[in-house]
Amino acid sequence: MKHISIAGGPGQRPGRLKVRIDSKTFRSAEGTAAEVLRDFSFELRPETFTCLIGPSGCGKTTTLRLILGLDQDFAGEIELPSPPPRLAAVFQEPRLLPWRTVEQNVRLALPPAAGRTVDLDGLFATLGLQDLRGRYPEELSLGLARRVALARAFAVMPDILLLDEPFVSLDEHTADRLRALLLELWRTQATTVLMVTHNVREAARLADRLLLMNGHPARIVGDVPVPLARAARQGEELRRFLDELTRAHPETVLA
Amino acid sequence: MDRQSDIGRPRDSRAPLRLLSILAFLALWAGAAALAASPEVPGPVQVFGFLVKEAASGELFYHLTVTLARVAAAFLIAMFIGTAIGVVMGQSRNADRLLDPWVILLLNLPALVVIVLCYIWIGLTEAAAVTAVAINKIPNVVVTLREGARALDPKLTEMARVFRFSRGRMLRHVVLPQLLPFIAAAGRSGLALIWKIVLVVELLGRSNGVGFQIHLYFQLFDVAAILGYALAFVCVMLLIEFLAVQPLETHLNRWRPRAASRAA
């Protein structure tokens, strides 16, 4: 059932990431089937920042897993741009190797040739991890471990970066700092970002475009560009945008 | 694992107790020997006297080395093959269904039967001896490592897939560290089991090694010699435990956030 293909060819670059999901069904241990996703598609233009928003449990994480190729049991097609892009992901949990140090965790994600030599000083300094390179993940707080997971994803210099609620269950101050870092790193590296979140405010502050997801089985129910300049996304203007969004999509935004 | 926890304790608090325990054992032994007053129950002095004499002639070290080599060979073969089969069975339900009856059969096959059959089919050779011992140990390793492979964290596997870990990188940095506690458990119990079986193998079909010597002195009814050889080999195994196994375990567990294991 899997259809993952590489589209485009010479002269067509940079390509888009095209996602078409006809149906995704989970089968429980007792054999009952539940369809979680049906009939939607979207494309991501290169170097854009998109947020996928929807209530908890509506299938956002499943969509990311399909794009990452971690779940290939679905009807539809994930078309990666050509040449094959480098992918990186930040999962909901940091997913660090507990038996490797912070620095080893980051270097292991790099291609073997680069892994040993690449200079990570700048990245570690930006993320405030320079003094923790030799520590093991279990010695770190959740916020620090999240930063390491971000460092790992950015060290790869991915063409496409997928994030699954990377700032959930952090205190607002830490989350804000990490959001700012994410934006900064996204600006300096030509990366296409798709971030899953149920925090609409967070999404409206970070993204160029919001994809709203809802229903059982879930579909894309809204595709909303964020027209504001990033510097203007606060106070009155941000509130007006959010109010409008809530009026147009009450079930998805208020959930 | 509970042995792990006292590694970090200060040396001085446990050393006197250990020494006391050993002295009490020797005193009890000497007392029992004096009471029995029979050549069939030699005291510690006679046994150590025999060890000194046997060491001076070079016999002791020769037979200890031969046995140790067999233990090492059988151990490595059993661990390697057992781990490979165990991991496959833990990862694939079909392989598990296919091989499980064989494992149960081997687990319940008496060591003696395996040894005798190996000597008959392969011949009275070194290869037969080592094979027989390894076959006895393999099912234990399989069962332990199967549990380990079932416990592998799919979240880390997915992370490694997303970041395109090579096969080697995956094995070394993701899979093996998760299997290590299981490999250590299989190794611990394995070493103890294997050296006991090696002695039987030597008794039945080899002309050197600790088992052969014990057989020889059994025919001479020389209990001091039998106890001497047994004691000498137990000491060798203790040395391996304290000088190799425990330091290695401490090193491999250095990432665990337990102050005790890092302070050692």
Q: Would you kindly provide a written description of the structure presented here, covering whatever features stand out?
A:
The complex is a heterodimer of chains A (255) and B (264). In chain A, helix 2 packs parallel to helix 5 and helix 5 runs parallel beside helix 6. Chain A has a single domain, classed as Rossmann fold (3-Layer(aba) Sandwich), CATH 3.40.50.300. Chain A has 9 helices and 10 strands. About 3% of the residues of chain A have low confidence. The longest helix of chain A has 17 residues. Chain B is mostly helical. In chain B, helix 4 crosses helix 9 and helix 7 packs across helix 9. The N terminus and C terminus of chain B are likely disordered. Chains A and B meet through strand 6 of A and helix 8 and helix 9 of B.
Assembly type of the chains comes to heterodimer
The residue ranges of chain B in which pLDDT falls below 50 over 5 or more consecutive positions are: 1-10, 259-264
- For the record, the count of structural domains of chain B works out to 1
CATH top level of chain A is Alpha Beta
Q: What is the architecture of chain A at the second tier of CATH?
A: 3-Layer(aba) Sandwich
Give me the Rg of chain B, rounded. Answer: 22 Å
Total number of strands of chain B: 0
Overall average pLDDT of chain B: 87
The name of the CATH topology of chain B is MetI-like fold
Sheet/helix structural class of chain B? mainly alpha
Strand content of chain A: 25-35%
Elements of chain A, N to C (H/E): EEEEHEEHHHHEHEHEEHH
Shape of chain A: globular
